[in-house]
Amino acid sequence: MIIKENEVEQFDFDGLKITDYTAKLDENSSFATISVLPQISHKLSWSKRSNKYYYIITGEINFIVNDKEYILSKGDLCVIKKGEKFKYKNNSSGIVKMILVHTPNFKLDQEIFE
């Protein structure tokens, strides 16, 4: 299967620019890229369904996982297990780009946002 970037719609999710390559598929995992503009954050949340794998492509971003803070940059991976509370924020002046994989695949109704 081949999915071309120009065939995938990007959408805005509270200021996050998300390109979900697998949104129209029913696969075991889902794959998306996220662009986080300066000073944009992802609110505190957790998943009832999926483990999440965030891989940093460019930039530096602050993650808080289970009340512990981490500063991640290019080449770093953050694994959020199902049920773990997390949030992140781009405190820099540049755009942060990340890859996000959900396993099992992403289902919005299984995500809790506080």
Task: Give a nutshell description of this structure.
The chain has 114 residues and is mostly beta strands.
Provide the succession of SSEs: EEEEEEEEEEE
User: What is the level-2 CATH architecture name?
Assistant: Sandwich
| Beta-strand content estimate | over 45%
Read across the widest sheet, the strand sequence of neighbours is 1-2-3-10-5-8
* CATH homologous superfamily caption: Jelly Rolls
Kindly identify the CATH topology.
Jelly Rolls
In terms of structural class, how would the helical and strand content be classed? mainly beta
For the secondary structure, the number of strands is 11
> Fraction of residues in helices?
under 10%
Q: Any idea what the shape is?
A: globular
Structural features, described:
This protein has strands at 10-13, 16-20, 30-36, 41-47, 51-58, 60-65, 68-73, 77-80, 86-89, 96-103, 111-113. The chain is an all-beta fold and 114 residues long. The protein has one domain: Jelly Rolls (Sandwich), CATH 2.60.120. The strands form two sheets. It has a six-stranded antiparallel beta sheet, with no helix packed on it. Strands 7-6-9-4-11 form a five-stranded antiparallel beta sheet, with no helix packed on it. The protein is globular and about 35 Å long. The model has no long low-confidence stretch (mean pLDDT 96).
Features of the shown structure:
114 residues, mainly beta, Jelly Rolls, 6-stranded antiparallel beta sheet, 5-stranded antiparallel beta sheet, 11 strands, 0% helix
